[in-house]
Specification:
Number of domains: 2
Shape: elongated
Low-confidence stretches: none
Strand content: 25-35%
Oligomer: single chain
Number of strands: 20
Mean pLDDT: 92
Largest sheet: 6 strands, mixed
Distance between the termini: 42 Å
Bound molecules: adenosine-5'-diphosphate, magnesium ion
Number of helices: 8
Length: 349
């Protein structure tokens, strides 16, 4: 297994720059997600790591060895495009064995490797089955087996669960993470789905328009988003953004909203008036008489144990996650209070 490091990685197609100087290190054995909206440069980044695309600038290092100009086949990395692609006329064992046969490995060694892989994936009982007879989950396990059997230094996966329905995707997320915990292979997992990234990854790099905006553990990027883009992309429903007037001085511990002071995490630098935004997650808003912001209930969406109540205020529409037992009337005048230690300040520029 290996550490993967990219330094100032850039890729231009003619005039257009798809990846604008990425830097990150993926520790050996980590599950690393590249997350971002369609077109932000995830696949291009992954293809450069795989060796399928040559960077315009920058370096790729595997365990500190510069592999930037090494061809894909010599990098010893498995690229998993779509977990479902199997050879239908082969049985499970033959499917898994195929990459080793291509390498010219001995029959005995291939047999041992296939057994070991099947054991890891818990599909030993399926080895002689035809792949056309398998369930969706088992097909996916076999496809993974075919990637694992070569014992690559790392796995690269490009939206591998993209084609699956929500329920099955959720199940496979759990399995992929479970498998990762057993084999501890460095994995780079590309997705546009924040829930997939949040539920599986040790570290997430959030990309926007070719740039990595933040890298951190799921909890970290959720609690301390580095930009409004990250705050908006992670979490559902999204973070509320409330614009407010007035500047801030380094050391300030509160901002002024309507008639109330709202305590905020300590301000670290002076910030000019006019472009400041308070970020509040819906679960950190509650209804209160000693309110900081007033508004009128616009709507409520029932989600089982909680409900998302939207309130129109002078600062825009604010979503609050409340217990579903709370009674809420549409059009009702309410006061909102924010959980101060969980707020984030942004400069909207
Ligand atoms: P993602 O995987 O995040 O959806 P991609 O890495 O596939 O994004 O693409 C990033 C941007 O680069 C997109 O705007 C895409 O159109 C462009 N792009 C990708 N590959 C090529 C290519 N071979 N030629 C020209 N433009 C490309
Ligand atoms: Mg892509």
């Amino acid at each position: 297994m290996a550490q993967i490091r990219v330094e100032n990685l850039r890729k231009s197609f003619d005039q257009f720059t798809a990846v604008q100087g990425s830097n990150f290190t993926i520790p050996d054995g980590a599950f690393f997600a590249l997350l971002g909206p369609s077109g932000c440069g995830k696949t291009t980044t992954l293809r450069m790591i795989a060796g399928l695309e040559l960077p315009t600038e920058g370096k790729i290092l595997l365990d500190d060895e510069d592999v930037t100009f090494r061809r894909a086949a010599a990098r010893d990395i498995a690229f998993v495009f779509q977990l479902f692609a199997l050879y239908p006329h082969f049985n499970v064992a033959e499917n898994i064995a195929f990459p080793l046969k291509c390498q010219g490995m001995s029959r005995r060694e291939i047999g041992e490797r296939v057994q070991e892989t099947a054991r890891m994936l818990r599909i030993e009982h399926l080895l002689s089955s035809k792949t056309s007879k398998l369930s969706g989950g088992d097909r996916q396990r076999v496809a993974l087996g075919r990637a694992m059997v070569r014992r690559p230094k790392a796995f690269l996966m490009d939206e591998p669960l993209g084609a699956l329905d929500a329920e099955f995707r959720h199940l496979m997320c759990g399995e992929l993470r479970d498998l990762h915990d057993r084999i501890k292979a460095t994995t780079v997992y590309v997705t546009h789905d924040q829930l997939e990234a949040m539920s599986m990854a040790d570290q997430i790099a959030i990309m926007n328009k070719g740039r990595v905006e933040q890298i951190g553990a799921p909890q970290e990027v959720y609690d301390r988003p580095a930009s409004m883009f990250v705050a908006d992309f992670i979490g559902s429903p999204s973070m509320n953004f409330l614009r407010f007037e007035g500047g801030l001085r380094s050391g300030d511990r509160a901002i002024r909203l309507e008639d109330a002071n709202v305590a905020v995490p300590e301000v670290r630098e002076d910030r000019a008036s006019g472009s400041l935004v308070l970020g509040v997650r819906p679960e950190h808003v509650r209804f209160s008489d000693g309110a900081q912001v007033r508004g009128k209930v616009f709507g409520a969406e029932y989600l089982g144990t909680t409900q998302i109540v939207t309130v129109d205020t002078a600062h825009g529409r604010v979503a609050a996650r409340l217990p579903s037992a709370a009674t809420v009337r549409i059009g009702e005048a309410v006061g909102l209070e924010f959980q101060s230690e969980r707020l984030t300040l942004f400069d909207a520029g």
